[in-house]
Amino acid sequence: MASASSSSARHLFDDSKKRLCARVGVNVNNLGSVARQVVRSSKTNEIMHQTLKNFTQVDVVSDYSNQNLQKMTLILQHVGYQYDVMQDSVNHLDYLKEQVTAMER
């Protein structure tokens, strides 16, 4: 009877050992899955961080471009004023030339 009980205990131990190994194998596979997900997530965080950094840089460059465009618009307006003044001066010179020729006659 001692041998029957010892063989039953050995069989129970072997069965438990097999089930434990199977569970550990499943957990190792799950762990690999979790590890891959963690690596993907960390890469996703890095990508998101880099994307946010790039977006911020683009936003700053866009603001500078907008400011430069406003300055160029103002410069263009002033150049237009100066052109108008020079055009008036040219027209005035033509009038003065006519007066000078009239006085010379």
Provide a compact summary of the structure.
The protein is mainly α and 105 residues long. The protein has one helix at 2-104.
Question: Which terms would index this structure?
Answer:
105 residues; mainly alpha; 1 helix; rod-shaped
Description:
By secondary structure, the chain is mainly alpha-helical. Helices cover 98% and strands 0% of the residues. It contains one helix and no strands. It has one helix spanning 2-104. The longest helix is centred in the middle third of the chain and has 103 residues, at 2-104. The N and C termini lie far apart (153 Å).
Strand % is: under 5%
Helix content: over 70%
Number of helices: 1
Radius of gyration (CA) equals 45 Å
Give the low-pLDDT segments. none
Task: State the end-to-end CA separation.
Answer: 153 Å
From the spread of the alpha carbons, the general shape counts as rod-shaped
Oligomer: single chain
The major pleated sheet works out as: none
Mean residue pLDDT: 80
What is the helix/strand order?
H
Which structural category fits the helices and strands? mainly alpha
Give a count of the beta strands, DSSP E runs of length 2 or more: 0
Organism: Drosophila navojoa
Pfam families: BORCS7
Protein name: BLOC-1-related complex subunit 7
Main location: membrane
